[in-house]
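User: I'll paste a sequence; please echo it back and then give the predicted structure.

Assistant: Echoing your sequence first, then the prediction.
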Amino acid sequence: MQAATILRNSLMAAGLLVLVSSCDKKRVFDEYKSLDGKWKKNDTISFSFEQKDTVSKYNLFINVRNNNSYPYNNLFLIVQLQQPDTKLVKVDTLEYPMANPDGSLMGEGFTDIKESKLWYKENVKFPKPGKYTVSIQHAVRKGGEVPGVEELDGVTDVGFRIESIE
């Protein structure tokens, strides 16, 4: 009897996993790097992925999970995209709102952890097949100060996502 219960529970878990993963048909790449609630100024978070398709178009996102310790209304990021087998790097400095006018965090989630799916690039065609690398650093500064914030509190995870648009 106990073996039958274990088998039934295992089959239910496997079915649930297939159901949940099949709902995300646009996902081509989706990976997160965990932080200890602080993102240090000099910590670069990198994601590498193989891209074979040079014809289709994709949308690229940066995902940020933060908690109520995040002290700012916005987030500044420096994002680099390196193509395969070259030193060619495209660098973007991006700004994203992270809080509503009342100070509450934007993003999805029911607890004090909010996840923000931030647009990076839209309708991207990868020019050549091979290994690409995306590197992300924060560039947050306190108002009126030149040096950047050494430790950005409240950031728990940073992710990178590629979605098919076709």
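Residues 16-21 have pLDDT under 50 and may be disordered. Strands lie at 27-34, 38-40, 45-51, 58-66, 74-82, 89-97, 114-124, 130-138, 151-153, 155-164.
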